[in-house]
Amino acid sequence: MPMESEQLEAVVMDIVAGIRDAIIKHHVTVDQYRFAVDYLGRLADARELPLLLDVFLNVAAVDAENEVTKGSPQAIQGPYYREDAPAVTDRLKTLDHDNERPLVVRGQVRDIDGSVLPGAEVDIWHSTPTGKYSGFHDNIPVDYYRGKLTSDSEGAYRVATTAPVPYQIPNQGYTGALLEAMGRHSWRPAHVHFKVRKPGFKTVTTQVYFEGGQWVDSDCCSGVRDDLVRRTTQEDGVDTLTVDFVLDRAA
Ligand SMILES: [Fe+2]
């Protein structure tokens, strides 16, 4: 929903003040300013404005919400969510790859008072073992590497799948060129996405990262928070990622 004019004016003028301060602090020349204006125009023409803004700013909007929620920490949803993921019970469909590593994802859903929440929808999605997303890349059908579980009478869920891997965000365009010109990279650490919902509760959209994983300390989208990093355990010889959720009541 749009902002009230008072909040809008305050936000816009703070943004403007921050940019003006950066221009002055770094002695940006008028020619460099003109180059930046032209760059942003070309980036917008290429429909890359959402990508650029999400790389740098989406996490801040999420963290602003994290400041006021009593539930599990939220994270950026990213561009690869599919509402039409299939219902699943105990296994995500995966493709045969030589380098796939089994992974079990399990956990429990509770409310902020600690009561277990049966019947919560735990929607999970993650990359293939080659860093792609079904429904978006390589014509992989949408029912692979994603699915909607339902928490059981103890609020628990458990699903077998394969481990996701780090991947690069689209880096062939203007956003990638900017990151490269800045000497930065376009990699995201391996992660599992979640969207957990139940009527009457605030939906938790989040991502969980693997302790010690590559790029965890330098995610190009700055999406990693300490409370979103988990160490896997071994259960029956399989890497197991345990992710519990706490749902706050809906306003
Ligand atoms: Fe992702």
Describe this structure in words.
By secondary structure, the chain is an alpha/beta fold. The protein has a domain at 102-247: Protocatechuate 3,4-Dioxygenase, subunit A. Helix content is 25%, strand content 24%. The chain is built from 4 helices and 12 strands, in the order αααβββββαβββββββ. It has helices spanning 5-25, 30-45, 49-66, 174-181; strands spanning 102-111, 121-126, 146-150, 156-162, 167-168, 187-188, 191-197, 204-210, 229-230, 233-235, 238-242, 245-247. The strands form 3 sheets. Strands 1, 4, 10, 11 and 12 form a 5-stranded mixed sheet that branches. It has a 5-stranded mixed sheet with strand order 3-2-7-8-9, with no helix packed on it. A two-stranded antiparallel sheet has the order 5-6. A hairpin with a 2-residue loop joins β10 (233-235) and β11 (238-242). The radius of gyration is 20 Å and the shape is globular. Residues 78, 80, 191, 193 line the site of fe (ii) ion (FE2).
Please give the structural blueprint:
Layout: H1 5-25, H2 30-45, H3 49-66, E1 102-111, E2 121-126, E3 146-150, E4 156-162, E5 167-168, H4 174-181, E6 187-188, E7 191-197, E8 204-210, E9 229-230, E10 233-235, E11 238-242, E12 245-247
Parallel strand pairs: 1-11, 1-12, 8-9
Antiparallel strand pairs: 1-4, 2-3, 2-7, 5-6, 7-8, 10-11
Bound molecules: fe (ii) ion.
The site of fe (ii) ion (FE2) has 4 residues, from strand 7.
GO molecular function, one term: ferric iron binding
Keywords: Dioxygenase, Oxidoreductase
Protein name: Chlorocatechol 1,2-dioxygenase
